[in-house]
Amino acid sequence: MKSFINFFTEARTSQASETAAKRGWTGDGHGNWFDKKGVLVARTERGRLVEIQRKAAAAPEEEQPKQVKREEEPTKAQAQASQADLTAQAEGEFGMFPDGTPRTMAPPTRADGTPKEDRGPITVAFGRFNPPTIGHQKLFDAAKKAAGKGALKIYPSRSQDAKKNPLDSDTKHDYLQKMFPDHAENIINDANSRTIFDVLKQAYEDGHSSVQIVVGGDRQAEFEKLSQDYNGKLYDFSAIETISAGDRDEKKGGAEGMSASKMRKAATSKDEKAGFEEFKKGLPKSFLEDEKLAKQLFNTVKKQMAVKKEGWNLWEIAPKLDWQNLRENYIKENIFKIGQMVENINTGLIGKIIRRGTSYLICVTEDNMMFKSWIKDLNEYTEVKMDSIEREPGKPNTLIGTGGYKKYVEKMSPGNQWGRQFINKYKKKSK
């Protein structure tokens, strides 16, 4: 969802471009506009076309006779330098991609500072897969088809909680490889890829010039907007395409109607035998050849969800299957309050709630990135690591409002109260 500021800025930018085109001016892609003689005549500032005011030359007190100077032929070196300047002007500050698209960021470099060679396009898939189901086969096959002979990487998310993400990253990766051996080499277990932005930044740093993102049909618009909004800011691809692997219909049977929500619901069944039979419907036939392995996955999911201890409501573990009760609890403000930390279970983004909509939330990450999420796609961010100084090995907890962040700030200046003062100052500012 665009903010009002972004909406009007984009509208003004479009108007500025149209006005410049009518006047016959040419842009360089960085907000500068030149007339037919190549003279800089205007700039786009905050979405507005601002003409450059040039001062008229002061009239001389007494007109002097003009001296005609014979033009000399430029030397070869001067000609080459001039051509280089023209090329740099045409290509922009950071040059061009192989397909002719201007770069807006400096290309990735090696440790010695030399540019990395273009590794061409890459196809990525990012999802929860918690637990993996036969329905994910469709996504993986679609990603492989889209990739063709190009690079393909499938990233399971790092999210874990008892309600909607019972399997930890390592366990999930292990089962994914066993379920889908044809895709095993493409399934990546990377602790640094917590969000879709982490995945895209890594792909760019690896030297890939363009990217295809393959997602379920219900998430295509969300991933399309996020990935495009930050192109040229966090990464700089010549092209980004978000491809739908197809829509899912929860009412249908087989792979088309199977979902992780149904699997989690089966794992919480009071009738364990009936629950296991329902759970098996979501597993590939090849995986079911070893029923012990299927039972092991079922028990692992059941254990991690702490079913006997917690007794979860359906809207908590599978909101898509109990939308009415989810929204009722939301309206009553039993969940998702202003200022609370939440995680988007589709993208991995973690942020603070700043606005509550009818069925959605507007959130801001610690890096001041704003994102919109439907309530069915959010979790309260309550992982234990919130109270730890480090979220990942070597990575400090910088999530404002968490106990871990407080400890981190205080650790920065041991022996004084600066950390506490900083946090108190932030709280006052927030109010």
Question: Mind sketching the topology for me?
Answer:
Blueprint: H1 4-22, E1 26-27, E2 32-34, E3 40-45, E4 48-51, H2 76-91, E5 121-127, H3 135-147, E6 151-156, H4 169-179, H5 196-205, E7 210-215, H6 220-229, E8 239-244, H7 254-257, H8 260-267, H9 272-280, H10 285-288, H11 291-304, H12 307-310, H13 314-317, H14 323-331, E9 341-344, E10 350-356, E11 360-364, E12 370-374, E13 378-380, E14 390-392, E15 395-396, H15 403-412, H16 418-430
Parallel strand pairs: 5-6, 5-7, 7-8
Antiparallel strand pairs: 1-2, 2-3, 3-4, 9-10, 9-13, 10-11, 11-12, 14-15
Helix pairs in contact: 8-9, 15-16
Structure overview:
With 431 residues, the chain is of the alpha+beta class. It has 5 domains: 4-51, no CATH class; 121-244, 3-Layer(aba) Sandwich (Rossmann fold), CATH 3.40.50; 258-315, no CATH class; 322-382, SH3 type barrels (Roll); 385-430, no CATH class. 37% of the residues lie in helices and 16% in strands. The radius of gyration is 28 Å and the shape is globular. Mean pLDDT is 80; it is low at 1-13, 55-65, 86-91, 415-423 and 425-431.
What kind of sheet is the major sheet?
5 strands, antiparallel
What's the average pLDDT? 80
How many structural domains?
A: 5
The counted number of beta strands is 15
What gross morphology would you assign?
Answer: globular
**Class derived from helix and strand content:** alpha+beta
Low-confidence stretches: 1-13, 55-65, 86-91, 415-423, 425-431
Helix content: 25-40%
CATH C-level of the largest domain: Alpha Beta
What Rg, in angstroms, do the CA atoms define?
28 Å
CATH architecture grouping of the largest domain = 3-Layer(aba) Sandwich
Helix count, DSSP H or I runs of 4 or more residues: 16
